[in-house]
Amino acid sequence: MISATPPILPSGSVRILPMSSQINYVFAGDIGGTNMRAALADRSGTLIGRGTCQTEPELGLPQAEENLRALFEEVASGVPRDEVGGVVISSAGPIDPDSGIYVHPPNLPGWHDMTMKPGLATSLNLQVTIGHDATLGALAESRYGVGKGAQHLVYVTLSTGVGGGVIANGQMVTGAHGHAGEIGHLLVRPGGQSCNVGCDGCLEGISSGGGIARAATIAMSAGRASSMSDMAGGDIEAVSAQIVFEAAANGDALGREIVESVIDAVATGFADILNTLDPEYLVVGGAVTGGLQPYWDDLKALVEDKALPHFKDSVPLYVSPLGDDVSLIGAATHAFDLADSRSG
Fold first, then answer.
1. What pTM value is reported for the model?
2. How far apart are CA 141 and CA 149, in angstroms?
3. Helix, strand or coil for residue 33?
4. Which of 66, 72, 280, 284 shows the greatest Cβ crowding within 10 Å of its Cβ?
5. What's the pLDDT tens digit per position in 188-197?
């Protein structure tokens, strides 16, 4: 059993429990800018236990680490400890997958040059791996999603931030420093609206949930009239991406202008991805993707127009069927891969 209180070990030491010959479960975690989630997963890819809490990055990484540890203990209640094979955590990045050290993460302010990997390994007494959320999402899509069995796949998440993961020749692509797949910082409109780390005109700056809301706030602050002000209770700083999409659907001129700008930026980014990586599948997920669903045919046509000729009428663009669980499933998949490689 996983005890409620982890054993106390000497500072800096990690005692990993012996690997069982029968690994039936793994821990999967997901750290986003808004929420953290933990799950216990079995070999079928099923998440059989779940827990969630707010990330609250402003409270610091040590507090987030403790909260995540508590979630893992909660979801594993009643499971024999020697049947749990390890921990893989997907996280918003950029992040070094070897050390788990964050590198100026735009949506986890204050976590730069910090890691929770050794602390969790000590408190859980398990091997801990931390990877980029979208890269693990790509792994999940290639094993269980619409691109099951694909050797070449790109997964893009349009959400609080914009991230990407790449599968090439059946393997996760991480790059020299673990930062491969930072698709959100493709420059799709040079000189345009910035993201949180100052990339002017990048895909994340324009097409993330925060970027969409910021575009509306800036425009209304400059005097543009819009129903979005009333929808936000008169506080234009409270306008969200969801409000922008709702206003556009109701015919609000500013809302439609912003949504059209987002569609153009996303189409440019997707065309760049197709032209550069030539994937079998370009799979898209995240909350902003839901807002774009009514415009999907327009988006796909624009991607075809911007991409190389051989993509005309055959853009391999798909919406993820795995939904919000994609990174958790990817983390669980990678955890079993690692556990099996160690026990084998």
1. 0.86
2. 9
3. coil
4. 72
5. 999 999 998 8
